[in-house]
Amino acid sequence: MPLDEQAKKNDDELVWNEVPHLIDPIYKIDERPDSIWESLLYGWQHTLIDMGTPLVLPIAVAAALKLSPEQSIAMISATLFVMGISTLLQSTFGNRLPVIQGPCSTSGAAIISMAAIFPPSAIWGAIFVCGFIEFVVGWSGLLKYIRVLFPMTVAGLVITCIGLNLGMLGVSWVVEGAKATNMFLGAAVIILTCILRFLCPNILKGILSRGSILFSILIIGLGVAPFLENINWHEVAVRPWFALPELFPFGTPLHGWTFVEGAILGLLVAIIGSVVEMLGDFAATSAVCGVPYRVSHINKGVRTIGLCNMIAPLLGSVSVTSYSQNSGLIANTRIASRFVIQIGACFIILYGLCPKFAALLAVIPQAVQGGVFVLVCCSITVAGLELLHTVPQTDANKMVIGLTLLFALGTPAYFNMPEHAALIRDFPVFAKLLLSNSIILAVVTGTFLNVLINHILLRFVPNK
Q: Are the beta carbons of 319 and 104 closer than 8 angstroms?
């Protein structure tokens, strides 16, 4: 068989022999909504649940790198622009799944921790090199062999932990400071979404129901919140309407960047963690879209992310990865159209080109965003639990599931407490990520226990 035909056959292989079917989408991956206005509505809705990290993470990285206020603002715009471009590339030419791409929290955390050791020039060089490595790994097809270590049991655990981990973050935003205003806004956006979702299924041909999250954010975040909280409209007023991202704001690979082995290795560890997260995100998206999870989704997805991470430092953006909350929105709305995600990507590109509009989204109170996160993450969590329900309910699998969930959720909860964080302060980067990140710990623990129990210990059990 010719090499190109063999490669195509390998890409068409399923990641698992079982094909989970969790929901029946109203619009499937290659279908389009009935009208362009409906597409615009659903695409915009996707972007509004993703604005937390793209706004907060660049600010934190800029502060760690001791950048000026102007450079910080430029980094936010560049990050939004790269986020939109990478989403458009992924959904059109990459794995063609409806997955939003955004700034990577694991690599962002690694950059913040490395900023005290390495200069910014080494950080940009490390982002570029790690992106190239991701591209080569995705192009080579090596990730197809992950199937042995990443069965549906582990995937279900990762998806469940993604939902619970993000959901707890959303809850913390709602209850932060035990402020009645925060709790009211968080509860209001959840209740209004439920009212629109379940009591208005036939209003405006169902658009009001399917766009319930978007309408709730706008009504509560921009309509009700200004009467309860002091919204800083000055930040919106002073931003320009249009600004192109600057090319090479922090130098180029040939002039201004440095390539330091320690910085590359430290960031590479974080990138490995983000790749593992991506495998779970792609699995979750495939499951809620009702499509088989194929090897091509893994290879093409990681290859596209690698290419985007080579582009990111050229524009002054942090590295990107796939986002999981959008699979929760798909499960909630049953809109799985790639075209909707492409519309959302165009909106995000416009956010990057229009600092004033991005600032408008930034003034939405965090409690409102937290309520939306809770709604979305409950769908992700249920999707993960449903996926776990489809695996054989053997004693071995139950042991793997129970132990992984307890360790993956309990260990980071302990080490992320302020009084315990000092215990791992001097640990290597990967060890700190492992002990403080539920998702990475779920992958490592679930994979290890699955291999130990199902593939090693059970070999010694005689056949009955």
A: yes
